[in-house]
Design a protein that fits this description.
The longest helix has 16 residues. Strands 1-3-2 form a 3-stranded antiparallel beta sheet. The protein is mostly helical. It contains 15 helices and 3 strands. A hairpin with a 2-residue loop joins strand 2 and strand 3. Among the domains are: 100 residues, Endonuclease III, domain 1 (Orthogonal Bundle); 58 residues, Arc Repressor Mutant, subunit A, CATH 1.10.10.
C-alpha cells in the first residue's frame, strides 16, 4: 500500500514522464547500454548514439564478437571511452558465463566489468522491474534535501530502498530521476509544485545554508576544467586514431600539446595503453587494445 507522499510522487511522475527511447524497452541489454551511456553524459546527447549503437549491437553476443576498435568508433563523441571497453568486456562475460543473457541478481551484475551499484540496480529496476532503488546525482539531491542533512552512501541507499513503493519500482525510479533533473535542481530548485515539498526537511526549514545535497552521497561535484586537460587530449588522440594509425612523433601536435614536456605526452600515451584503448606497433599507435 502506498503512502500519500508516494502517491503524490507517482502521480507527478505519470504527468511529467519524459519520452526517452530506453524507457520504451525492458530489454536488459538495451537498458544497460543506455545506463552506461548516461553516465556523465546528458540525455539529449545520448539519444542518437544509443539508437545507432543498439542498431549495430542489438544484443551482448553482437557486441562481444565485435573488434574493440569498431566498438570505440561507435562510441566516439560520447566521451569516457573506457565505458565502451567495459561494455564490450561485460558482453563477452555475459556470453561466456550467462548464456548471453544479463543476470537478474545484484551480486552477479556487480561482478561484471564497469558495473557499479547504480548501474546494477538500474538494470534490475528498469529491465526486470524489481523494487530496488537507484541512487544517482539527481535522486541523491532529493534524498539529502528530504532528509535535511548530508547522507553517507549507506544511509542514502537505505533511505532510497525504504522509500520504493511495492510493485512500482520502474515508475518510481524513473519519476525520481525526472524529479531531480527537472525540479530538485542543483541551483534554484523549483519547490513550488514539488510532490515532496510537504515532507522535505530542507524546504520546511526554509532552505538554510549549506544545502544538504552538497557533497552528499551520489551527488556529483564540479569537475576540473575540460579545456587543456588530459581528458581532452585523450579524446583528440582517440578521434585521430579512428582515421588510422598515428605516429608517436605526431601525438603532441595532434592533441594540441606541442611544446609540452615530452614526459607529459608519454604519460598520456601510457594511460591509453594501460586502459586497453590503444595498442602500439613499432612507432605507431592503433585504435583498440586487442
Amino acid at each position: 500500500m502506498t503512502t500519500a507522499e508516494q502517491r503524490r510522487v507517482l502521480d507527478w511522475a505519470a504527468a511529467h514522464h519524459r519520452d526517452l527511447p530506453w524507457r520504451r524497452t525492458r530489454d536488459p541489454w538495451r537498458v544497460l547500454v543506455a545506463e552506461v551511456m548516461l553516465q556523465q553524459t546528458q540525455a539529449d546527447r545520448v539519444v542518437p548514439r544509443y539508437e545507432a549503437f543498439t542498431a549495430a549491437y542489438p544484443d551482448p553476443a553482437a557486441c562481444a564478437a565485435a573488434p574493440l576498435d569498431e566498438v570505440l568508433r561507435a562510441w566516439s563523441g560520447l566521451g569516457y571511452p573506457r565505458r565502451a571497453r567495459n561494455l564490450r568486456s561485460t558482453a563477452q562475460r555475459v556470453v561466456a558465463e550467462h548464456g548471453g543473457q544479463l543476470p537478474q541478481d545484484l551480486s552477479a551484475l556487480l561482478a561484471l566489468p564497469g558495473i557499479g551499484p547504480y548501474t546494477a540496480r538500474a538494470v534490475l529496476a528498469f529491465a526486470f522491474e524489481q523494487d530496488v532503488a537507484v541512487v544517482d546525482t539527481n535522486t541523491g539531491r532529493v534524498l539529502a534535501r528530504r532528509a535535511g542533512e548530508r547522507l553517507t552512501p549507506a544511509r542514502a541507499q537505505a533511505a532510497a530502498d525504504a522509500w520504493v513503493p511495492a510493485g512500482h519500482g520502474w515508475a518510481w525510479n524513473q519519476g525520481l530521476l525526472d524529479l531531480g533533473a527537472e525540479r530538485c535542481r542543483p541551483k534554484d530548485p523549483a519547490c513550488s509544485g514539488c510532490p515532496v515539498r510537504r515532507t522535505c526537511a530542507w524546504a520546511r526549514a526554509r532552505w538554510p545554508s549549506p544545502d544538504p545535497a552538497t557533497r552528499s552521497a551520489g551527488v556529483s561535484v564540479r569537475q576540473a576544467p575540460f579545456a587543456g586537460s588530459a581528458r581532452q587530449a585523450r579524446g583528440r588522440l582517440l578521434r585521430a586514431l579512428e582515421g588510422g594509425p598515428v605516429r608517436l612523433l605526431d601525438v603532441a601536435e595532434l592533441v594540441g600539446w606541442a611544446g609540452r614536456d615530452p614526459a607529459e605526452v608519454d604519460d598520456l600515451v601510457q594511460s591509453l595503453l594501460a586502459d586497453g584503448l590503444v595498442h602500439r606497433r613499432a612507432a605507431r599507435l592503433h585504435l583498440g587494445g586487442d
